[in-house]
Write a structure and sequence with these properties.
Blueprint (H helix, E strand, L loop, with lengths): L26 E7 L6 E10 L5 E8 L6 E7 L8 E7 L2 H4 L2 E4 L4 E4 L4 E3 L5 E4 H14 L1 H7 L1 H18 L5 E7 L5 E2 L11 E2 L1
Antiparallel strand pairs: 1-2, 2-3, 3-4, 5-10, 5-12, 6-9, 6-11, 7-8, 7-10
Helix pairs in contact: 2-4, 3-4
The structure holds zinc ion.
Zinc ion binds next to loops.
Length: about 200
Amino acid sequence: MSGDTEKDAKPNPLFRDITADDYDPEITEMASLCVNCEEEGMTRLFLTKIPFFREVIVSSFQCDHCGMRNAELMPAGRLQDKGVVYKVNIQTPQDMNRQVVQSQSAAVRIPCLEFEAPPKKGLLSTVEGIISQAIDDLNQCQPLRKVQDPEVAAKIEVFIEKMQNLLKLETPFDLVVDDPTGNSFVENPYPFDFSVFAWL
Ligand SMILES: [Zn+2]
């Protein structure tokens, strides 16, 4: 069922640290229908463990016929007893690379820009990845907007520029991940220095 798990005799634990160098998780593969072209594609499911967080299921789909791909993240556990709000101050390229688990109930906010991305599908990304995705989302409708509503388009253009300045780390900024189900997480590169990691 799974590909290259027999490389050595050492048994693979079901849950693996996602940052482990010998990243080689147990993968379950299932043929499944492509939502794009309706040919047969392949869904791969694997369990993985995110350090200092918990186990999650990563589901990735790929269609060899039309090239469609997507990946989704689902918490392997139940709803947590408490919601979480992570507020992290982003100052360095290392902060930009912090891993973010965004569950399908989590909203992401950047207070200095009054920006909020509502919950969507669960995903595993980084701070940089989340901002880049938000820029892509805003850019997507700009050509149409410039025709239909040039005034709004111009305002969004200015906003996109501000988002791009965040990526360049021109000034430190806060990023908030707010998840009432408690299944989101922002990696802390300094796990034992609580002064740099604000729990609200
Ligand atoms: Zn397809």
